[in-house]
Write a structure and sequence with these properties.
There is one protein chain. The radius of gyration is 20 Å and the shape is globular. Helix 6 packs antiparallel against helix 8 and helix 8 packs antiparallel against helix 9. Strands 1, 2, 3, 4, 5, 6, 7, 8, 9 and 10 form a ten-stranded mixed beta sheet that branches. The protein is α/β, with parallel strands linked by helices and 326 residues long. The chain contains twelve helices and ten strands. It has two domains: 186 residues, Rossmann fold, CATH 3.40.50.720; 130 residues, N-(1-d-carboxylethyl)-l-norvaline Dehydrogenase, domain 2 (Orthogonal Bundle). The longest helix has 21 residues.
């Protein structure tokens, strides 16, 4: 008996998060990883990616993908891992991953992304491929191509099957992916309620970005040091949690307090990713982190649960509109 054939993994979007999790998947053993790199292609293809991290003992930690490509190949994979930002007004993720999905009718599509409603366009385009919806809990940044800084030691991943597909064994795919993550040393939560994890993560993302921007304080530490805006953060996070509970999602008692405590522990100067995108003139994930959940609240006549957040959202849209005209 020969050894089992390796698991073939494609990562689309090899920024900080994509690179980190793909590195750990490769470390699980018996995995062949291909990474799609754009801005960092030259560096990654020649030198690999260096991780500055204290999570894995003494370095240097160098990740050399088995294959580095500039565009999505028309080849067969077991898992197509998408770590791009969700920017439907800028590009179509289904269009980008289509060559690999068409060549891999049995592949699972793993979405390691933030936001609400991110799975729907993938399901619409590829209804027979299992979607493994995933939430990353990690602080990583790529300040220069090929060098990734990992803040702290947390690298948790919650992963679950988005929806069952008749005649397709999505649960086996979920179990297999979860096992690879665990073998790679990732703290992995395999759940049958990934939608609730999405809303739990939203408590942080959807509150902090608009408050950091509209307060003109920009960093989480400065917002928390300001008594007025500290109270606004607490209010907005509580509203988002109340909305999620009203929609039937499982939000554990103390989730808001835990989110506040996590925020306090962040390094001075830490900025939400949407804030960094705004500062650097890049498109922001407004649609999936703010607009989509707000629309859900409107559709269910639940906006009375989110008065402060609802107003912040409207104010942020006006602010961005004015800023674009400058």
């Amino acid at each position: 008996m020969g050894s089992p054939s390796p698991t073939r993994i494609l990562t689309v979007g090899t920024g900080a998060i994509g690179a980190y999790y793909t590195w750990r998947l490769q470390q699980a053993g018996n995995c062949v990883v291909t990474t799609v790199c754009r801005s960092n292609y030259e560096v990654v293809s020649s030198k690999g990616i260096e991780f500055i991290t204290t999570a894995w003992g003494e370095g240097p930690h160098i990740f050399k993908p088995d294959h580095v490509v500039k565009t999505v190949p028309s080849e067969t994979y077991d898992f197509i891992v998408v770590c791009m930002k969700v920017l439907p007004h800028v590009y179509s993720i289904p269009d980008i991953i289509a060559p690999a999905v068409k060549a891999s009718p049995n592949a699972s599509i793993v979405l390691i992304q933030n936001g609400i409603g991110i799975e729907d366009p993938i399901k619409a385009r590829f209804p027979r491929n299992p979607i493994l919806s995933s939430i990353a809990y990690i602080g990583v940044t790529q300040n220069e191509p090929g060098i990734i800084y990992h803040s702290g030691t947390v690298h948790r991943l919650a992963v679950g099957l988005f929806e069952p597909i008749e005649g397709v064994d999505g649960n086996s795919a979920l179990e297999a992916f979860g096992d690879i993550c665990k073998q790679g040393g990732i703290e992995t939560i395999v759940t049958d309620d990934i939608a609730s994890y999405r809303w739990r993560k939203l408590i942080w993302n959807a509150a902090m970005a608009p408050i950091c921007i509209l307060s003109d304080l920009w960093t989480v530490s400065d917002v928390f040091a300001n008594e007025k805006y500290y109270e606004v953060v607490l209010t907005v996070k509580s509203e988002i949690a109340a909305l999620a509970i009203a929609l039937g999602y499982s939000i554990p008692p103390g989730a808001v307090e835990m989110s506040m405590a996590t925020s306090k522990k962040l390094a001075d100067g830490y900025k939400a990713s949407m804030v960094i995108d705004l500062e650097e003139g890049r498109p922001m994930e407004v649609e999936v982190i703010l607009t989509n959940p707000i629309k859900v609240a409107e559709e269910h006549n639940l906006t009375h649960l989110i008065p402060t957040w609802y107003q912040l959202y409207k104010d942020l849209l006006k602010y961005l509109e004015v800023r674009q005209k400058l």
